[in-house]
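Figure 2 data, in text form.
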Amino acid sequence: MELQDLRTFDLRSQRHTARAAVDYRATRTLDLRASFTTTNRTGAQPWGVSFGQSNAIEVAAPIDHRSNDMNATAEWSNQRALARLAYDGSWFTNRVNS
């Protein structure tokens, strides 16, 4: 294989993250909290493939996905007790079909 037969490919990727959070003290004994984080990643990453033989090659695999994370909490407490109710959710979306 000669040097001019080698091909290069662009392997850049970008990750964008946004986060919002709120803490609210409803009363002296009740605290409410919520947060939301979203992360989007696009670009390409190296990936090894083989076509049935032992000679594997490296290709650029596309990346295009988003993940969302949410948390909500209500917490009640006094001098003798504490009660906490919480919800955590996470969603992942992959926009690359194959």
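Caption note: The first strand starts at residue 13 and ends at 25.
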